[in-house]
Write a structure and sequence with these properties.
This protein is of the alpha+beta class. It has 6 helices and 5 strands, in the order H-H-H-H-E-E-E-E-H-E-H. Helix 2 crosses helix 3. The structure holds zinc ion.
């Protein structure tokens, strides 16, 4: 209790933090035999610099504004497919939006989505993954996609009292 935590909520990414993200993405792309093109990097930067998950149309609109030319959502979708395949970005299914993939949590993770600030955090939950696997197998159901996303109030919003109105 009383532990100081430097909140990133609502803040733009510092250039050092973005450099770190960019370097990690470039390494992930190389590992997947892909290339981090300037346009892919521009899409990634929009996602990295926003504390909340962004939809493809939002990304297209922001890029159109920044680049001073129309960017089609379809071209953003194509880039998002690559970013997801390279494990740099993950899709937030219930919001139809995209956030950075957290390299420290494995594929058996669940997303915690704050209704106060809109932040999304992935947490390890392999026990839940195992339970879902057991139940689907017991039901002779061939699972294709397993999405577990939890809405609620994050710690910093809770401490700021924003959870009281929920
Ligand atoms: Zn929050």
């Amino acid at each position: 209790m009383g532990r100081f935590s430097a909140s990133h909520h609502g803040n733009k990414l510092s250039s050092a933090a973005w450099e770190q993200q960019r370097a990690r993405a470039a390494a992930q792309f190389a590992a997947h035999g892909a290339c981090l093109t300037p346009f892919r990097e521009a899409v990634l930067q929009q996602i990295a610099c926003c504390p909340q998950p962004l939809g493809a149309y939002d990304i297209a609109a922001r890029l159109s504004g920044e680049l001073g030319k129309a960017v089609a959502p379809n071209s953003v979708y194509r880039v998002l497919d690559v970013l997801i395949a390279c494990d740099v970005v993950r899709r937030v299914e219930s919001k139809q939006a995209y956030c950075l993939a957290d390299p420290s949590v494995g594929p058996g993770s669940i997303l915690l989505m704050c209704e106060g600030c809109g932040s999304v955090e992935a947490v390890e939950a392999s026990g839940i993954e195992d339970a879902v696997n057991q139940q689907t197998e017991a039901a002779h159901f061939r699972a294709v996609r397993k999405v577990i996303e939890v809405t609620g109030i994050c710690q910093s919003c809770d401490e700021a009292g924003q959870g009281d109105t929920a």
